Predict the 3D structure of the following.
Amino acid sequence: MRGYLPDFDVRVPASLGEALALLAQAPGTLTPLAGGTDLMVVYNAGRLKPTRFLDLSRIDELRGIREAAGAMTFGALSTFTDLRECAAVHRHFPNLVKSARATGALAIQNRGTLGGNIANASPAADTPPSLLAYGAEVELLSVRGSRRVAYDRFHLGYKVMDLAPDELVAAIHVPLPTGRGFHYFRKVGTRQAQAISKVCLAAWARVEGGVVADLRIGLGSVAPAPIRARHAEAVLLGQALATLPIEAAQAALLEDISPIGDIRATARYRSVVTRNVLGHMLRELATL
Ligand SMILES: Cc1cc2nc3c(=O)[nH]c(=O)nc-3n(C[C@H](O)[C@H](O)[C@H](O)COP(=O)(O)OP(=O)(O)OC[C@H]3O[C@@H](n4cnc5c(N)ncnc54)[C@H](O)[C@@H]3O)c2cc1C
């Protein structure tokens, strides 16, 4: 059964300062509300516990996509549509565009935000693998100040984040890739669209002189939180494209993942498919 709407109290601050002050008054009692595309599903199912919300929609400081000092900054309220429609994002971060396109349908892409996708902390969310592959940092704000956390250290476990109750995700900073880059994104779901990931893999590599000089692989739906495939990365770093140790990397990948079985896929399916997608990614990388 749905929640009862009059039970819910929604604060609508007009500025970032006001929002942070409200959060600081009684930390943990106000739940940030961005696009509402995750929260409203929980509300509709009658499982939404908190009765006080902080509507972020009027806070212009949390909007916008900007390029400066070798990085691109995405305001937490950037929507999937914003990502899809930004030429600079297409140029520098094609995996983020693919992640945004793979998220829900257009209505969800118009409302759902990057900050919400991260802070909802679903292991199956679609932008986190790309953000991990691109070495993103999360900027957190509170009345106590601002701090940055490497995104690969932000998720601490299932739905556990390095995010204090008085903090907001303010922005996501992503360094502009340099050199000869390779970008790969693959979401495996039941359908091409409107499906939750069974496995999601995003990778970025820099190749120098035919050798893998830098590589990050982000994974979704195969662990309690989005993760880097650090064991597989270690096997591949410094290797020549002509002799990539694909099978060794696939074996190492099994040390990175800890998939579960659920209504979408079995644990074994997720293991086999993740291994196969990594193989596909590496065969593409070898042709660069
Ligand atoms: C039909 C449907 C299909 C979907 N398909 C996909 C899909 O394919 N892939 C996918 O990844 N997701 C999918 N989603 C989930 C959802 O759309 C995304 O996770 C979206 O990014 C959530 O963003 P939001 O702004 O709507 O978050 P909200 O629902 O507003 O908030 C989500 C959570 O994040 C917190 N939060 C939001 N913003 C901040 C902030 N700035 N600081 C701190 N905390 C914050 C909220 O308190 C809440 O806990 C789907 C949802 C629906 C309903």
Q: What stands out?
A: Residues 31-39, 41, 56, 76, 103-104, 108, 111-113, 115-117, 119-120, 125-126, 168-169, 196 surround flavin-adenine dinucleotide (CB under 6 Å).
